[in-house]
Input
Amino acid sequence: MSEILRFPEGFLWGTATASFQIEGGIEDRGWSIWDDFCRWPGKVFEGHTGDVADDHYNRYREDVSLMADLGMQAYRFSISWPRILKDGMGDVNESGVDFYDRLVDSLLEAGIIPYVTLYHWDLPWELHRMGSWAARDLAYRFADYTRVVADRLGDRVTNWITHNEPWVVSFLGYWMGVHAPGWQDLGLALQAAHNVLLSHGLAVPILRESNAASRVGITLNLSPAYPASDSDADQDAARRQDGFSNRWFLDPVYKGTYPEDMWTLFSSEVPRVSDGDMEIISAPLDFLGVNYYTRSMVQAGEQGPLRVSSIQPEGEYTQMGWEVYPQGLTDLLVRVEQDYAPGDIYITENGCAYEDELTSEGQVHDSDRTVYLYKHFIAAHRAIAEGVPLKGYFIWSLLDNFEWAFGYSRRFGIVYVDFETLERYPKDSARYCQAVAQANALTVE
Ligand code: IFM
Output
């Protein structure tokens, strides 16, 4: 017996991308920390760069048509800060602004609602030289940049996301050193996280003022942490993991405080917080963007300040080595709603990388991706049934693209990109998403 799961009326289906991952067009933008990082030996798979990427800078019209053809109602993309302000501040790069002007206009003409992220990791190099995100001043530079973008696009863009995944920015970039700028210092990472959050809070009123209809949010990558056993030690480990992955960002944004247990745990490494910062950071928002890919399972360990060690439960894994765990999405959404009541929630990213193969007929039979998405759509529907005000779902990603340290070796797109010819080929999963979006429903077998 099959069952039809209907999503609420007005539920928004879309896809997501990010500037550095798809645009290319390096000649019309300033140098960013990722341009530099790509050139560090051994940091990015086979030295891949974002110089050309998917050449979306030149092919955006084709990409907008693709989305329209797939019945997508919204598109989440990011603005490249160094395309707007080559050095991160100073003179506006008019041709860069013009690119986003044309992109937004094409989307609106196609009936696709733009959801614009202001920062998805491509920090202008000059700002990095001024101390990177560990420098408090960057928060104010971000506010200035926000003002420029809001002035130029705010007449047509009303859905804004300040930052994408501050956890990744600060901890992968400044503590673990596997993302740009490649630093490895916990104290600087925590300071970077604080400055990113401060910049978020400073940007909120600027975006609101740009248009009475503006809706502003932030996107966090969240991952529920489960203990490997019922022991007190493992349960404490899961609490620490949750504090690190989730509460370190959710608490400041929604409660105006850092979680006490984690503050104690990080002890001498905690960030400098000035008077008034937490009020700025906790400015009321219109929505929360949640990026969900997998869960974590941990047990008590000895290593590092967190003293947790990760377990790989039996199960299915994607090419990233991430466990396929749709129940985690339901659990996460229900928990976020219960503990933080953030108002409207969007899944601003969910998707998976698998080894795709383009057939000689130009097809990609990615049933593994289709099944992954199908299971996560069901999980999202279950969360709605449990009272979560989930308003939309953005699939990561529209196109195969530059997957950071993995370069082009991981394909997350529902549209295959031949990186030699830059031809696009909708995969079977794209047709599945099209059917779900068009029906605003899915059939469960
Ligand atoms: O590609 C990234 C994206 O830039 C941010 N969220 C996770 C995706 C997959 O790793």
About this structure: The chain is about 40% helix and 15% strand.
